[in-house]
């Protein structure tokens, strides 16, 4: 397995890292994450096709691009991969062709051959797709021990529309999956938030998908404002600093849920993921150092799973973390670099939602405000 990477910045490819002299003419897979206006440009896609003529090219809009140990905006980070014995299969669907995001996810998994399947990497529209339903659909057809990870495309901090594409100029409403196959693939994954929980554990008593109405039979928005105190005056902007911890009734693990918007008229809160009735929630608050330390914890957990330092690490981190961390955002990438060492190629993007299991190689879950890492090696 060989991995190389490029950064497309100011209209040209720069900052190449190709330690193993990977022949771009023979590359099998190209992963690109970048600003929507750049990846939607037909000329840019044609440049990629010319540079990597035989590769499957997958592109996703992002809310920030990870290249080496830096975080960029208004660029495209491009990762190029070739395998020795492993291989990939790809599939793409339009969410408008399905009655629900669940059915879209189920169909995508059905399309991938299962023999020798080890990992499914998902890149999904981040504006039109219900991420919670999507992962349920993907899980419905997941063979045991197959890893599913990935993320929902971003759009900077604009939240207007997102774009994803497979071997074509990216567009809205698309979901792409890449299946990785081969007995020599060595994988690991981890997901950490670093948020501090506070207050009592409470129960969701009225909700509809990602709309939260009541907690403990009390109006959820009123309760939320009470916990926020002076920060309630700064809503909805301050909501990024105070997500919820969500624990379903069938698991002991929790995920983070971010507030997207607040409906003052109807006293409701809209989240970036479903909050089923009966699930348990706690309020959370930001601690900058703990958020950054979470990146180190995630990288360390990856190394506990695999035997060798990874050839490549893909970081999918939340735009909410980027907005909260501000000038310190690159520190979480530096933490991952410190754990993996200089030989591991690190790439990734800031997203509108992260997809990763809660337990090793278990069903995947939708996360918000979380840093997720997937690593890959190919043993010889």
Question: What's the helix and strand layout?
Answer:
Blueprint: E1 2-9, E2 12-17, E3 29-34, H1 36-39, H2 42-51, E4 56-61, E5 65-67, E6 70-72, E7 76-82, E8 87-94, H3 101-111, E9 117-124, H4 131-140, E10 147-152, E11 164-166, E12 174-181, E13 185-192, E14 196-208, E15 211-215, E16 218-219, H5 220-228, E17 244-247, E18 255-257, E19 259-263, E20 268-271, E21 280-285, H6 288-305, E22 312-318, H7 319-325, H8 329-340, E23 345-351, E24 353-357, E25 364-367, E26 371-378
Parallel strand pairs: 3-4, 9-10, 22-23
Antiparallel strand pairs: 1-2, 1-7, 3-7, 4-11, 5-6, 5-23, 8-12, 9-12, 10-24, 13-26, 14-15, 14-21, 15-16, 15-20, 17-18, 17-21, 19-20, 22-26, 24-25
Helix pairs in contact: 3-4, 6-8
Could you describe the 3D structure shown?
By secondary structure, the chain is α+β, with helices and mostly antiparallel strands. It has two domains: 2-192 and 290-378, no CATH class; 196-286, no CATH class. 21% of the residues lie in helices and 40% in strands. The protein has eight helices and 26 strands. It has helices at residues 36-39, 42-51, 101-111, 131-140, 220-228, 288-305, 319-325, 329-340; strands spanning 2-9, 12-17, 29-34, 56-61, 65-67, 70-72, 76-82, 87-94, 117-124, 147-152, 164-166, 174-181, 185-192, 196-208, 211-215, 218-219, 244-247, 255-257, 259-263, 268-271, 280-285, 312-318, 345-351, 353-357, 364-367, 371-378. The strands form four sheets. Strands 14, 15, 16, 17, 18, 19, 20 and 21 form an eight-stranded antiparallel β-sheet that branches. Strands 2-1-7-3-4-11 form a six-stranded mixed β-sheet. A six-stranded mixed β-sheet has the order 6-5-23-22-26-13. A hairpin with a 2-residue loop joins strand 15 and strand 16 (218-219). Helix 3 (101-111) packs parallel to helix 4 and helix 6 packs parallel to helix 8. The longest helix has 18 residues, at 288-305. The chain is globular and about 60 Å long. The model has no long low-confidence stretch (mean pLDDT 95).
């Amino acid at each position: 397995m060989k991995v190389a990477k490029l950064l497309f910045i100011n209209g040209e490819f720069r900052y190449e890292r190709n330690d193993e002299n990977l022949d771009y003419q023979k590359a099998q897979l190209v992963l690109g994450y970048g600003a929507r206006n750049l990846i939607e440009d037909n000329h840019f896609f044609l440049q990629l096709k010319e540079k990597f003529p035989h590769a499957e090219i997958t592109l996703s809009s992002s809310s920030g691009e990870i290249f080496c140990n830096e975080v960029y905006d208004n660029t495209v980070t491009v990762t190029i991969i070739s395998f020795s014995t492993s291989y990939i299969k790809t599939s793409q669907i339009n969410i408008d062709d399905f009655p629900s995001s669940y059915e879209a996810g189920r169909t995508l998994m059905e399309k991938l051959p299962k023999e020798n399947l080890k990992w499914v990497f998902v890149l999904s529209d981040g504006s039109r797709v219900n991420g919670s339903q999507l992962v349920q659909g993907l899980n419905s057809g997941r063979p045991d021990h197959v890893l599913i990870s990935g993320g929902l495309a971003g759009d900077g901090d604009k939240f207007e529309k997102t774009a994803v594409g497979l071997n074509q100029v990216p567009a809205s409403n698309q979901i792409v999956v890449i299946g990785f196959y081969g007995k020599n693939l060595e994988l690991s994954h981890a997901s950490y938030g670093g948020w501090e929980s506070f207050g009592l554990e409470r129960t969701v008593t009225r909700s509809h998908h990602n709309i939260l109405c009541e907690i403990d039979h009390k109006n959820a928005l009123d309760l939320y404002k009470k916990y926020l105190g002076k920060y309630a005056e700064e809503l909805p902007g301050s909501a990024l600093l105070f997500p919820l911890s969500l624990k379903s009734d069938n698991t002991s693990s929790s995920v983070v849920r971010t507030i997207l918007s607040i409906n003052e008229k109807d006293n409701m809160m809209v989240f970036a993921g479903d909050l089923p009735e009966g699930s348990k929630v706690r309020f959370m608050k930001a601690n900058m150092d703990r958020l950054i330390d979470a990146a180190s914890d995630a990288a360390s957990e990856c190394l506990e799973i695999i035997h060798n330092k990874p050839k490549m690490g893909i970081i999918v981190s939340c735009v909410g973390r980027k907005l909260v961390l501000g000038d310190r955002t690159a520190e979480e990438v530096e933490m991952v670099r410190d754990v993996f060492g200089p030989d591991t190629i690190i790439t990734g993007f800031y997203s509108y939602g992260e997809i990763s299991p809660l337990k090793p190689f278990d069903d995947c879950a939708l996360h918000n405000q979380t840093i997720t890492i997937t690593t890959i090696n190919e043993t010889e």
